[in-house]
């Protein structure tokens, strides 16, 4: 599992023209970040990795143009996002982001994005109609929509008093301990599932070139595009059943 994370981190860095990867198994172990991996099955027992999404909570000093000052608050941050080029522009990235938002009970406007590429900004506009950027001067950007509602204004103001508040406008946010318990529960459920426990990774000599050759992007669509959530205990396998429907493209 660690090797897969490392390799996907490398190709993500290449796609973003970074000097070095910002996602690896070691980095994941030494942080409280969460990695979502999207997989496809080429057989009933083998799978390939289609994309990754790395997320994590950070305390950021956010500038609100409407009120003209900065306050510290906890924000859920998008740190790395990559879909293999053979699967881009086919709905995979949108599905992976949607899965993360549903998993965390967040809306897209609640996120901060670290060093976004032009392609990622275009993606956020196309799929979430987010375009009004507030550059924070700390490698992160947020959108003006972040401050749209009263809940976020209260969260923004309360953070000045040291309160760690969720910026979610959809449902209440899980705390870190609750999130860890949630992951362990899901991991235990998967281990009890004999079908999940028999899944094997299908490696190739060249990870980037070979892992996608034998996979039909839309074969067994109800089983494919399964996001796999990894946190600091990444060596456990979390396979989440896809809720993809025929119109999610």
From TrEMBL:
Keyword check for Acyltransferase: yes
Keyword match Membrane: no
Keywords: Acyltransferase, Transferase
GO cellular component terms given for this protein: microtubule
Domain annotation N-acetyltransferase: ranges: 1-147
GO MF assignments: tubulin N-acetyltransferase activity
Name of the featured protein: Alpha-tubulin N-acetyltransferase
Source organism per UniProt: Melanaphis sacchari
């Amino acid at each position: 599992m660690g090797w897969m994370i490392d390799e996907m981190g490398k190709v993500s860095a290449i796609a973003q023209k970074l000097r070095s990867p910002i996602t690896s198994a070691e980095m994941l172990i030494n942080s409280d970040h969460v990695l979502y991996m999207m997989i496809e099955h080429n057989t009933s027992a083998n799978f390939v990795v289609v994309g990754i999404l790395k997320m994590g909570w950070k305390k950021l000093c956010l500038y609100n143009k409407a009120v003209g000052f900065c306050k510290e608050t906890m924000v859920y941050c998008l740190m790395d996002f990559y879909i293999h080029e053979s699967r881009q522009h086919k709905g995979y990235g949108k599905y992976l982001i949607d899965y993360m938002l549903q998993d965390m009970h967040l809306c897209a406007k609640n996120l901060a994005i670290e060093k976004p590429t032009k392609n990622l900004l275009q993606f956020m506009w196309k799929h979430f109609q987010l375009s009004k950027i507030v550059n924070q001067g700390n490698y992160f950007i947020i959108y003006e929509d972040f401050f749209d509602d009263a809940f976020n204004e209260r969260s923004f103001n309360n953070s000045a008093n040291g309160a760690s508040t969720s910026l979610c406008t959809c449902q209440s946010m899980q705390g870190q301990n609750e999130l860890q318990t949630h992951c362990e529960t899901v991991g235990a459920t998967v281990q009890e599932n004999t079908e999940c426990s028999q899944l094997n990774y299908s490696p190739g000599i060249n990870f980037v070139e070979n892992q996608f050759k034998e996979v039909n992007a839309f074969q067994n669509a109800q089983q494919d595009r399964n996001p796999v959530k990894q946190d600091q205990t990444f060596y456990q396998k979390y396979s989440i059943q896809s809720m993809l429907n025929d119109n999610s493209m």
